[in-house]
Amino acid sequence: METVVFEAEQRRESSKVNRRTQRGAGKLKTVIYLAILLAAIFAAVKILPSYVADYQLSDKMQELARFAVVNHYSEDQIRDNVYRAMQDLGIPAKREDIKIISSQAVVKISLDYRVPVDLIVYQMELHFTPSSEVKSLT
Q1: Are 45 and 121 in contact (CB under 8 A)?
Q2: Which of 13, 92, 134, 137 has the CB geometry, 3.0–4.6 Å to 65, for a possible disulfide?
Q3: What is the mean pLDDT of residues 25-46?
């Protein structure tokens, strides 16, 4: 019976010692992990909208190229439609950056633009080159 009581006291004493030596270490890790998580969320909020806008523009360019082939749009009409889509998506490119090759058989649309991203401690520039090519079925 005495050994059981003695062992219980030893466990209690050793747990007190362990608690004293580990005090604060868990809090520091939590703060560091939380800072890393917040930095990752901040970067994602700044960067992801540019990628989403680029994907939407690529999709819209493909759609506009299909309509241009079927309706025999001129290069200026196609350029106007693509530029309108760029403005709707908030893409910082000029009208002159839109490259179009249009004929009876094929419509090719391409664009090359850069988006500046300010991450407070780091400035970066994302480079996008969406393009579309649609051939006539006839």
Answers
A1: no
A2: 134
A3: 91
> What residue ranges do the domains of the chain occupy?
24-135
**pLDDT tens-digit readout, 50-77:** 999 999 999 999 999 999 998 889 999 9
Q: Which amino acid is at 86?
A: M
CB 134 within 8 A of CB 69: yes
d(CA 68, CA 7): 85
Burial of 69 (0-12, 13-18, 19+ CB in 10 A): buried
**What's the one-letter identity of residue 5?**
V
**Alpha helices for the chain (secondary structure H):** 2-21, 25-71, 75-89
- Do residues 127 and 114 touch, judged by C-beta distance below 8 A? yes
Confidence of residue 23 (pLDDT cuts 50, 70, 90): low
**Tokens of residue 121, six digits:** 């401690």
